[in-house]
Amino acid sequence: MSNPPQSHQLSRFIVASGMTNLADGVAVVVWAWIASLLSRDPFLIALMPVALRLPWFLFALPAGIVTDRTDRRCLILAMDMVRAIAFTTAALVVWMSQPLAPVTGDGTAEPTLFAALLGCALLVGTAEVFRDNAAQTMLPAIVPHDQLERANGRLWSVELVGNALLGPAIGAFLIGWVIWLPFALNAVTFALAVTLMLSLQGPFKPRRNDTPNWRKELGQGLAFLRDAPLLRLLAITTGAWNLLHQMVVIALVLHVQENLGLAAWGFGLILAAGAVGGILGGFVAERVVRWMGPGAAAQWMTLASAVAFAAIPLAPNGFVLALVLAAFEFTGLIWNTVSVSYRQRAIPDALLGRVNSVYRLLAWGMMPIGLLLSGVVVNAATVVMARDLALAMPFMVAAVGASLLTLFVWRPLGHGFALVSN
């Protein structure tokens, strides 16, 4: 058991992460929903979350180098301040654009506002890349390695409360009441997170003896991942899964609006139900992984995602859809516990930021592709079928993709974790 100072440090770190994830949860609904108020074109709507995810492809590698060169706590503080400024700007531009012009099917009636919000989303996403990489590499400096599963479970449970339970519900309520208010709330929330992170104390800068050289540093990170077969497999699997997951996430917006006929608050509650499943997964993940073993847990959780993707368009109402998402997030949290805990344990601290960034380039860099692919699939399907069926096609494509992914990685995952345990 960790000593009291470690316990206090971990608690403050978790609360600060919970605050930032509360803001992220509010934004989950707000970014996509406000895009749907400015246009009904699935491709244009997808551009808003693309702006949030594209920085993972552009800046993941630089973020790893910066993370291993600097004090990780200071980097987190700086990035949270950047996000507070970006959300303040978004609140102001939305407020100044009131009332909004009527939504159009093609293009947008508010091109200046749409472009300004895309810029704010891009800034928020860029800061998130640096912040999240620093936060994930900072945790092993706070708790012993044999407690990483428990610490990650607690951290993700708190993050899910904000990111997918409270945040979406609050965001849906606020955007239905005052459209600029969710952005203003997020600015305040990030400012509070900065205050909490300021209270952390300790050595959070990696110890290094070499002279900084970005090419050499990047090469070391790439070489470590190249020579670690299980880490490489986890990165590729996560990347493919994230591509499919993002197809589903953006497709849900129009599916819920048009096929199920629900308003913003209904969408928020459905996402909140998914969070409940994830929170439960966070509480039991350590026991599930211990019972099944990390290899079997990774295998079965990958298969479960394929089943969930196929079940989403078959859900006849919001209540059943909420149950599907709850089961989906439960299994997803267990997968994350296996993947991230192994990564934190297997990578040396001095390399953690760089290897983590290469890993996340593969894992998160696929997200923008999935978002854009969702819009392309819907627009292409609309040519040959009714719109309600076309809106369901991204879920079916994701289900087929996840099934194929499970077939390809089932045996390598089991074999890889078996070698590690032996």
Features:
14 helices; mainly alpha; 84% helix
Detailed description of the structure:
This protein has 422 residues and is mainly α. 84% of the residues lie in helices and 0% in strands. The protein contains 14 helices and no strands. The chain has helices spanning 4-38, 42-69, 72-96, 111-138, 148-177, 181-198, 214-226, 229-259, 264-292, 294-311, 318-346, 349-364, 367-384, 387-421. The protein is globular and about 55 Å long. The two termini are 26 Å apart. The relative contact order is 0.16. The mean pLDDT is 83.
Question: What's the layout of helices and strands?
Answer:
Layout: H1 4-38, H2 42-69, H3 72-96, H4 111-138, H5 148-177, H6 181-198, H7 214-226, H8 229-259, H9 264-292, H10 294-311, H11 318-346, H12 349-364, H13 367-384, H14 387-421
Helix pairs in contact: 1-2, 1-4, 1-5, 1-6, 2-4, 2-12, 2-13, 3-4, 3-6, 4-12, 5-9, 5-11, 7-12, 8-12, 8-13, 8-14, 9-10, 9-11, 10-11, 10-14, 13-14
Concise structural overview:
With 422 residues, the chain is mainly α.
Structural class: mainly alpha
Give start-end ranges of low-pLDDT stretches: none
The dominant shape is globular
Number of strands: 0
Helix coverage percent: over 70%
- First-residue to last-residue Cα separation: 26 Å
The Cα radius of gyration reads 21 Å
Could you describe the largest sheet, including whether it forms a barrel? none
Question: Which band does the percent of strand residues land in?
Answer: under 5%
Give average pLDDT, whole number.
Answer: 83
> Please, how many helices?
14
Please write the string of helix (H) and strand (E) elements. HHHHHHHHHHHHHH
